[in-house]
Amino acid sequence: MHSAPARTHDPMCMGCGHANPGNLGVRVWFEGQRVHGEVLLDERHSGAPGYAHGGAIAAIMDDLLGQVLIPLDRPGVTATITVDFRGPALLGRTLSLESWCEKIDGRKLHMRGEIRDGDTLVAEARALFIHVDVSHWEASGQPLPESWQGWGGEAQNA
Ligand SMILES: CCCCCCCC(=O)SCCNC(=O)CCNC(=O)[C@H](O)C(C)(C)COP(=O)(O)OP(=O)(O)OC[C@H]1O[C@@H](n2cnc3c(N)ncnc32)[C@H](O)[C@@H]1OP(=O)(O)O
């Protein structure tokens, strides 16, 4: 059964934001601290006829690995991400997504993720996220999502 964490990502997120008409259509759900999801790319995401743009795959990875921050209950930002493109990313196919945290070292969160088309590995990624206080995002002057209130409150002291 899928658990539904109280927190959600930015509704305007370019990857998964339901309020963003230009979103990439990333859908995720959570099983414990693991993230699962799917995405269906189309002509808008083309890099070559019938194939997804590598930048679209990298953006999906950034969003996918970042989603692990929700069940980890640690707000954070991507410091570095490496994407290995392993197989064809065909448009019009439902790609499955999975991500998890491999290691926590103080504020450093080592994330991993995979995108598959059926049994075929399309891409895998490793990223370093840095745990930040929610106040990190206040400088923009934009209101933060309500569900971010108290996010990481306990982890700040971990
Ligand atoms: C649900 C949410 C989903 C989110 C998905 C989307 C995620 C995103 O796209 S976030 C947007 C892209 N990323 C950003 O905007 C981040 C911009 N960068 C920053 O704000 C800062 O550089 C930040 C916060 C990462 C680090 O700054 P700061 O808090 O001062 O930490 P700092 O002291 O420099 O580094 C902390 C540790 O991380 C390490 N570190 C920081 N950056 C890197 C890096 N690029 N590579 C390797 N190590 C790094 C440092 O060496 C240090 O290690 P140690 O503790 O061992 O000395």
From TrEMBL:
- How far does the signal peptide extend, from start to end residue? none
Task: Write out the GO biological process terms.
Answer: fatty acid metabolic process
- Thioesterase domain location is 50-122
Task: State any single GO MF term.
Answer: hydrolase activity
Point out the coiled-coil segments of this chain.
none
Tell me which domain of life the UniProt entry assigns to the organism this sequence originates from. Answer: Bacteria
Which CDD domains does its entry note? Answer: PaaI_thioesterase
According to Swiss-Prot or TrEMBL, what is its membrane topology? Peripheral membrane protein
What is the catalytic activity of this protein? octanoyl-CoA + H2O = octanoate + CoA + H(+); hexadecanoyl-CoA + H2O = hexadecanoate + CoA + H(+); tetradecanoyl-CoA + H2O = tetradecanoate + CoA + H(+); (5Z,8Z,11Z,14Z)-eicosatetraenoyl-CoA + H2O = (5Z,8Z,11Z,14Z)-eicosatetraenoate + CoA + H(+)
Chief location = membrane
Record-linked InterPro entries: HotDog_dom_sf, THEM4/THEM5_acyl-CoA_thioest, Thioestr_dom
Q: Where in the cell is it found?
A: Cell projection, Ruffle membrane; Cytoplasm; Membrane
Which cellular components does GO assign to this protein?
Answer: cytoplasm; membrane
Q: What is stated as this protein's family in its record?
A: Belongs to the THEM4/THEM5 thioesterase family.
From the Swiss-Prot or TrEMBL record, give the protein name: Acyl-coenzyme A thioesterase THEM4
